[in-house]
Amino acid sequence: MIEVQNKVTVNEKYKDRLFNFIFGSPENKKWTLSLYNAVNGSAYTDENAIEINSIKEALYLGMHNDTSFMISDTINIYEHQSSFNPNMPLRQLQYLGSLYEKYIKENELNKYSSTLLQLPVPKLVVFYNGIRDKRDEIILNLSDSFDERVRAEADVEVRVRMLNVNYGHNQKILDACRPLKEYAWYIDTVRQYHRAMGIESALSRAIDDMPKDFNIRQFMMIHKSEVFSMLLCEYNEEETMNLFKKEGIQQGLQQGQQKHLVEQVCKKLKKCKTAAEIAEDLEEDINEITRICQVAEKYAPDYDVNAIMENL
Prior knowledge:
- The protein is α/β, with parallel strands linked by helices.
- Helices cover 48% and strands 12% of the residues.
């Protein structure tokens, strides 16, 4: 663990996100409480009622979540997503199971007892601020992952509220939680500046241009290096994912072209043509056609194209 100003700690093994740095820190419980009130329409005033219990990767079975905390009789799991993920109900279910296990152990409860345990009510929320246009609120259900034919028979359901917190969305919630609105403004401003300059310059200029009455401004200025590091990680992660998608599309096209070639070769093999004749007919490289023919011979006379592709 390393210490930074204001005693905010950053776990080097756990790559934090700016959203969690703002709303999941024990030192910023007033902002966590403000966010909770905005999401639930409540009016709690005692920030000490917030008990942060986020799962950190280095501490708990290789699993981590963004922000989780207890307040009153609820256990709240808040996740931030910059890209749409329909599998959040499954992930939140896994987090919830781990948090309940932690809760049972810390409170010395016996889950094998004949007495019914009283557990905190789960409240599962995803805060989305990706560039894909999404409605202000979407309910994600675990049952959406089940086969439609047997979905109604499922004994388990998990509901997750996905809230679009891009600047200009969910105005009521953003107005009720000033730090969230200010965070949304900052991300939106970075994106606007990034169209005309490098990402590091955009991050710096957006902080410099942040209105002086913003609640999070001083915090962001004090922890400027951490803020930049987190957002650069997020942007690099997003760019890397886009590269993987492009590579995947290219690989798919190449595989499709090769499969089409194998299909053509198999048709001609069924007509008893030689590799040389096939290469001439298709105007393809003789070495590549010979390689396909050698593999295809193992699957004569039916020539299973999928099996040939796997062997190739």
